[in-house]
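idk why but the lab printer keeps eating my pages so im just putting this in chat instead. protein + 3,4-dihydroxyphenylalanine:
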Amino acid sequence: MDYQAIGQDALARIAGAQTLEAVEALRIEFLGKQGSVSALLKTLGGLSPEERQTTGPKIHALREEVTEALAGAKAALEAAALEARLASETVDLTLPAPEGPRGSVHPVSQVMDELAEIFADMGFAVATGPEIEDDWHNFTALNMPESHPARAMHDTFYLPDRTAEGREMVLRTHTSPVQIRTMLAASGASSDGGGAPVRIIAPGRVYRSDSDATHTPMFHQVEGLVIGKGIHLGHLKWTLETVLKAFFERDDIVLRLRPSYFPFTEPSVEVDTGYSWVDGRRVVGGSGDAPGHAWMELLGSGMVNRHVLEAGGFDPGQWQGFAFGVGVDRLAMLKYGMNDLRAFFDGDVRWLRHYGFSALDVPTLSAGVGVVA
Ligand code: DAH
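predcted complex ->
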């Protein structure tokens, strides 16, 4: 029995093993139950005590050596495998990250944000109010008493409950009640209207019992209110002109103020804008009286009616104001060339992908106004 030859052969073959499987096969061949090194150990029992004293330690040492060689080979191969994996699986951190599915900003939200930003530059704050409103804020305080025909005209959604004061509750038919809430908060700040001047816009949802190609039961408005001393129609016209130029990104916006009637304003004006048709699309710009142009009604506005100022806690002898209300959906259609109002609220993902806007990473001024209670 040449244990030295067995040892040399084992170590040489371990050194030559190329794979982890080969190392494992060698471990079984040498150290397994039937293994050749294990067999050497078994022979010790048949040796004389003297022989066992000299040969025993050598065979044990050989077994140690083979065990270590196997462990070393295994560790080396594992390290090489890891190296290879690291080399092949390198992540290039400079590559753009893969795009996950992303939502988009609805054109209505986009337009409300755009308006909020434009008005913010002019010193306006964003005000909000409840979508479930009481009839005092929605009608009475806006100079529309119980008998007023406009209450029926609006074809309001009434709710079965009443407020603690016994007022009827409605889904607000316009954003104008935010005027009253804002005025009351401002005039309450001191007895002479110390919360003024007031400069707000109020974007949000409004509801009317109406549904056809050009009306949806829910739609969006932006209300505007300015209260100060010496405020007159000129301020209204300049403000609207400046805002619409910024909104439509055109310098040639021409407005026409047409006498009208709203209970909450006196005088009241309807504001028209000139437009023309380009490639089957209405494009605002120019005077409506210019060749190839026409006027289109854009929004309602006027000087705040004295009864409304009083309901808001302001003395009409000292304070004046202007107000306006504009349909956001309509502005969006005009600016971005959409033609069917109902598509706005169908939630068709293809439409949203086409017309939607990518989200800004910064919170916007009117963000979340759609959900205020
Ligand atoms: N509240 C009106 C509506 O919904 C719009 C409106 C007209 C608002 C004139 C105003 C205004 O503030 O002055 O039809």
